Structures are given as structure tokens and as C-alpha cells.
Amino acid sequence: MLEVQFAITLLCFALQNHIKKSILIEDGNPARYRLQTSTYNLDQSELYRKMTFGERDKNKPHKTILMVGETGTGKTTLINTIVNYMLGVQREDKVWFEITDDQSDRTSVHSQTSIITVYEFYLQESPIHLTIIDTPGYGETRGVDVDKEISESLFRLGMFDDCVHEIDAVCLVIKATQTRLFDRQIYIFDAVQSLFRRDIVENIVLLFTHSSGAPPKNALTAVKEAKIKCAENDKKKPVYFLFDNCQSDAADEDEDEEYHELRQDQSWNRSFRGMMGLFKFLDTIQPKSLRMTRDVLQKWKQLKANIKHLKAGVQMTELKQNELKQTQEALEKNKKDVEENKNFEYEVEVTYKEKVDIDRSVARVAMCCTVCEENCHYPDCWWFTSLSRCSVMKDGHCTVCTNKCHYSKHVKETKRYVTKTKKEKKSYEELKVKYEDKIGDSVSLVKKLEEELQELEKEKIKLAIEAFHCVETLEKIALNTDSLITLLHIDFLIEKMKEINDPEKAEILENIKKRAGEENTQIEDS
């Protein structure tokens, strides 16, 4: 009994100490306080920021949770509820602590560029330390382009932050009253899940907010219909926890005080029961490494870069075909001069590459190979101090450019290569000089040109197969290969597999598309 009383006294003392060190936001019942935190912007692009409370004790167990939810679901209140639960705040204390800041307090630049907020909660009197990774609400007007950057932010977070190298739980925050999930909700759930191995399913839980305490039947049906994968209990039912978002609400002017007290008591009890369940779950589940997140995202990036390179290769092949056809027509038209080995002039449309300024609305920089004169990573290329760390690099060499050149042959700049054509006068003598070392007595000039075209076709096939293998690898390691990121390129790859007469690979891609469902291919336009 004395030990319990002593523990309660210590908690009360700690609580009073936190009140003294915090900033009063609003007096009332409860009184709202903002915890004093240190805020860090870790890199120039400001894709994520970090807010830290307290000092880390490396000997303490450390848990990390990822929060995903639509704007308006009460995700911010939920984060603050977690903090109050760890602080040991009780209803009778009549205080409420907040670690989150008001979005309006951010600068205009920060509100446009900051994608993820990392809350590090290092409470000395707590048995564990906690990191909360808060993804932005995807109901915001900034659109799907911002949603895509969440994946990039998680990638960079896992690469550069020593404190965030594994995830204990992915928390999908949904209103308990919701009857259906909207396209963008499904998109972001799908995109986040696609970053992990398939076994992340057992770490995904549903957090239902604005709950009355009754089972959220409609919301659970909506989750089921949207085919959202998550952890299941012994009865093969989704693991979920209920929360009420009214703990910090002050009484209305015309609200009966007794009724307000009763409502607040119910709200606190419901939410803190949910917290007990969530933390019990965190104690029992095995964390998942963000290392695989980096590997999977790197495969996504290589896939996208390879497909863009493939499309450029197809374009180049068609232009070369056109140039060859015009050259053959000129040889045929001047057949007599060819037979007599006389010089003549002809006009063809030749291809060339030119460096142009990148579209700043699409990307900040482009990774280009100076040897191959190709765009190896554009767009989605972010600045790294060492080019070897770019996601298209592997073992110091590019996985995209034609010659797979060393990273030192690449540059990151605000220009990229574009393929253009122009009319140019050629002569028969120039053509012979160009190919004199490549043709033998028994090989005609036309035949050599045809062989060169075949080499281009081989390169196109090689690129198509490389892109296919990226998709195939993702199906083995990713939770959800049917993500929009893959589907954006599926049709193009299917067409190329048919062109190179590989129906087996085309069928595999068709099956991936079929599983995803035709409606999901329209999400990006919503």
C-alpha cells in the first residue's frame, strides 16, 4: 500500500514539474498546456522535421509507430492522447498536454514542403521511449503529388535517422462513423503498405476515433470492402482500438456542468482503455525493419527510372528507324550513282540530344550520365551529398543508363537531355566513311544499317525485361504490389512484352492488373 502511495506521489510531483515547464495555451477544465520541445529540420529539402521532448536514454526500450489518416479524423488529438497517457494524466488532474503545434504556426515555406513530422517523446519516468511518425492528412488540397512524397520521406527518414530504423506499428486512423473509404484514403493506405514486406500486416492496426464506444460495424465493413490488410485477432477479426476525441474539450456556455463532467469522464475512460490496448499490442508485436522499406522503395525508383529509360529507348529506336528508311530511300533513288560509286547528296531527319532546363514544377534536379547523355533519374531525384547514394545506383554503378556507368560519370543539375530531330544534308561519301570500318566486302551498307537497327531493338527488349523483373521482385517482397505506383506503368509494360513476343510475362502483368481492379487505375485522377 505504501509503495502504491509513493508511486502516486512521484507521479503527482512529475506532473506538477511538467506543468511548470510547459506553456499555458488555454485555462479551463481541463487547462491546456503545450510541452516544450526542440524542433529540427534535418536537411535542405525539409521533407520531414523532428520535434523532441526530453533526452533519450539508449538503455530504455524504444517503440516507433507510424500514423496514417485523413484530415479530420482526429489524428492530432490522438497523438496528444498518447502523450497524456504516457505522462500518467488522469481526468481528475484537469490538465491536458499537447506536443503537436498548430499548422497555422508554420511558415509558408514549411507548410508547403514539410511532409512528415517525427515526434520523439523521451519521458524519464516512463519505462519506454516513443517515436511517433505523423504523415500529413491526405485530404488536404495539395493533392496526390504530396502523397507520393510520403514514401520518399519515409525512405530518407530510415536512411539518415539513427533513431528510426524500425516500425513497431502502422496505425490507420479512421473515423468510427465512416461508412466508406474514399479513393485517396485507399491510395495512401495502399502506398504506405507497399513500402514494407508482406509480414508488416501483423503490425498494422486500426484506430477508430470519434467513437461512442459501440463496435464500429460500418467502418469495419468499409475497411473490408476496401481490402485494407491489417493484423487479426484469434477470431480472425481486425485488431482495432476505440478512441473519443473530446478529452480536451471545455464545457459549452449553455452545457450543464454535471452533464459535461459525465461526458468528459466517459471520453477519458474510453480513450485510455484504447491506449491500454494499443500499448499492450506494442509490447507483444515484433518490430519491422525500415531497411526493407529502403530496399523496396529503391526497387520502385529503379522500376520507374527504367521505364522512363525504356520509353526514351523506344522513341530513339523509332527515330533511328525513320532515319534508316530515309537513307535506304535515298540509296534506292540514287541507285545508279551507288553502282558507279559516285558521290551524291540526300536529306534525312537525324536525331540529336540537347540539354534543356528542367521543369521546376516537376523536379528540383535531374541525375544525368555525361557519357551516355541520358537522364538516369528524372523526376523524383533528390539531392544527396554523394551521387553514389542515389537510389538508381547499385555497387557504385548506375542501374539505368545504357553503359551502366560509374556514379562519378554522372551529374545532378537543373538540366536534362531531350531527344530532338532536325533536317540535315548528307552525302554518299560521308555515309561510306562512317561505315568503312564496320562493313566487309560481303556486307552491304544497307545490311549494316539494318543490323544496327536490330541492336537497338535488342536494347529495347533488354530494358523491357529489366523493368519486368523489378515488378516481379516487388511481388515477392512487397505487401501490396498492386499499388498505383506499379499500375501507372503496367499497360505500357504489357504492350512491350507482347511486342517482344513474350506472352508469359505479359500474362503475369495482366494478372497483377486484374487483381488490383480496374477502378484503382483511376485513383490518381481523383
From TrEMBL:
The keyword Coiled coil applies. PROSITE patterns: SIGMA54_INTERACT_1. One of its GO terms (molecular function) is GTP binding. Residues 61-206 form the AAA+ ATPase domain. Residues 314-341, 418-466 form a coiled coil. Keywords: Coiled coil, Nucleotide-binding. Pfam families: AIG1. Belongs to the TRAFAC class TrmE-Era-EngA-EngB-Septin-like GTPase superfamily. AIG1/Toc34/Toc159-like paraseptin GTPase family. IAN subfamily. This is AAA+ ATPase domain-containing protein.
